[in-house]
Amino acid sequence: MSVMIDIYETEFRKADLNLLVVFAALMREGSVTRAAAALHLSQGAVSAALGRLRRLFGDELFTRTRTGVEPTPRAVQLARRIEPALSLIQGAVTGRDRFDPATARHTFTLGMSDDLEAALLPRLLAATAGLPGIRIAVRQAHRNTVADLLDQGRIDLGIAAAPAHGPDHRTRDLFDSGYTCLFHPRLLPLATPLSLDDYLAHPHLLISYDGRRGIVDDLLDARGLTRRVIASTTHFAGAALHLAAVPALATLPAHAAAVYATALGLTATEPPLPMPRYTVSAIWHATVTDDPAHRWLRHLVGATEPPVPEPPVPEPPVPGPPVPGAPPDSLP
């Protein structure tokens, strides 16, 4: 046993554990300036620590970008082992092997798209209102990016529909959702449930990553039908806001549509064609599964799922070929 201790002591003399704290802060913040502020150090001190880290691991670790620093593949690999180890060391030093949200000072970073943020963040903020040391931060992400953000240490927990993931990730289903059609009743005084004729007769706002088409267009194409799209945006909230000034329709995820309808005085109704449902899940890196703070975060998110109202019974669907399966990240 004494030989083993001598070996570890020799290695630890080379690696000041405070350097690993700086490493973790750089991974989390993605910026020397923000890492310095979080650690209450000067930027010069953090830069010097980064230089020592680079010599220690024989790698650049972080490269400069216009917005901060980007971890190298070696840094991402190291982060998966360093973050859990630091958490264990902190518990050993402080004598705490549990997480007390009433006294903790902790920032949890979630990765999700703006429709999920609209549905979940207000409830998360309400649930943590009495916890002065708890802060919730949100980064924009979707099902194809959450895993990489987790691996890079940029987020603590991802929330997405059927998130893409690998063997190093864990997931938990949160709730099911579907699609809802929104419009402003003053600008478009339409009867509900909305008929297919009315749906096709009026212009649409499209929410799309490429600005060209969404799941609605795929479903209409399968029936030999088309709609008139007058504008597109990449944000669900933006489309909902525009409906207050534009006589148009927008088809959005049901969990977000319920929030926007209440906040903006919009009418929400079932789309007049069959649309798929999907499951929204939480995703995290396996290395933090047993971390007390992360367990608390997962419980918090799981306990604040949005109440998705049962959709009204739609008019009989238009005959046509079977509805094609739609990837949950397809936008309307």
Automatic annotation (TrEMBL):
What UniProt keywords are attached to this protein's entry? DNA-binding, Transcription, Transcription regulation
Q: Which residues form the HTH lysR-type domain?
A: 16-72
- Which InterPro entries does the record cross-reference, listed alphabetically? LysR-type_TF, LysR_HTH_N, LysR_subst-bd, WH-like_DNA-bd_sf, WH_DNA-bd_sf
Q: Does the keyword DNA-binding apply?
A: yes
* Alphabetized Pfam families for the sequence: HTH_1 (PF00126), LysR_substrate (PF03466)
**Region of interest: Disordered:** 303-332
Specify residue ranges for compositional bias: Pro residues: 306-332
Gene3D superfamilies, per the entry: Periplasmic binding protein-like II, Winged helix-like DNA-binding domain superfamily/Winged helix DNA-binding domain
Transcription listed as a keyword:
yes
**What family is this?**
Belongs to the LysR transcriptional regulatory family.
Protein name from the UniProt record = LysR family transcriptional regulator
